[in-house]
User: Fold this.
Amino acid sequence: MFEIFGWKVDTTSERLLAATALVIGILLVSRVLQAVTVRRIDTADRRYRVRKLVSFAAYGAALVGGVAVLRDSLGGLTVAIGVAGAGIAFALQEVIASIAGWFAISFAGFYRTGDRVQLGGIKGDVIDIGLLRTTLMEIGEWVNSDLYNGRVVRVANSFVFKEPVFNYSGDFPFLWDEIWLPIRYGTDWELARQLLYKVAEEVVGESTVKAGAALKESLRQYVLTEVSVEPLVTLKPTDNWIELRLRYVVDYRARRRTQDRLFARFLEEVDKTDGKVGFASATLQVIPGSAIDVRMRP
Assistant:
């Protein structure tokens, strides 16, 4: 016989009813606690963590409470559970894999909320990690560059075992990016190179310092080849122009803004050269063909 809140339950049906009522009560209490505590927290990150903590605590309490109520009846259900277990495991294999993926995400550090990732071909920022699915605010698709398109995508956690997980903001939250500019032949390309260096140091200088510190931390954890995070300008002559290409590091969230600032500042510097540096455009040279002599027989 089992007693809960003064109510004596004896039969299996009564125990099942009591266990159901206990689980529902615990879940309702957890919802109330979430609503009360979240109102007192200012930052979104802390609110999210508190909600998840209360939610998982409620699930654990519901599981323990249900087992405690049904412990005397579990012996008779063991055979039935064992027979049904194989079929349930086969039918719910994707669900089980997703739960295993949640454990891997939580304890192996695949990604966290706020990280920018690519999962199953979907790229976006992680806004929630559930027991079965990860929720992303998608970027890209019909929107150019790294901007939100407004779609919220839910990806099964089992994808972490099936496909590569691309994390743009994990241990090294910086990206190497490039821009290129066509410089016209006959203008001062060496001055153009110097101007591009100057603009790069001005715009991405702070990011370079931060990226260098982050790279040192990464080198302590992983086997990486020593690389430079300093801006690099390379030159390549082509058929139509001299191509100047700037390679630099940038925060993964500021790639689009940084490109805009680099182009705008370089254009300002070029305007100050009074024509010494000029941009090129595609040219087409038409070569006349040889004369063709056609003779008609009568």
In short: The helical segments are 12-38, 44-70, 74-91, 93-108, 159-162, 189-221, 255-271. Strands lie at 2-4, 7-9, 116-119, 122-129, 133-139, 148-156, 166-167, 174-183, 232-237, 242-251. The first helix runs from residue 12 to 38.
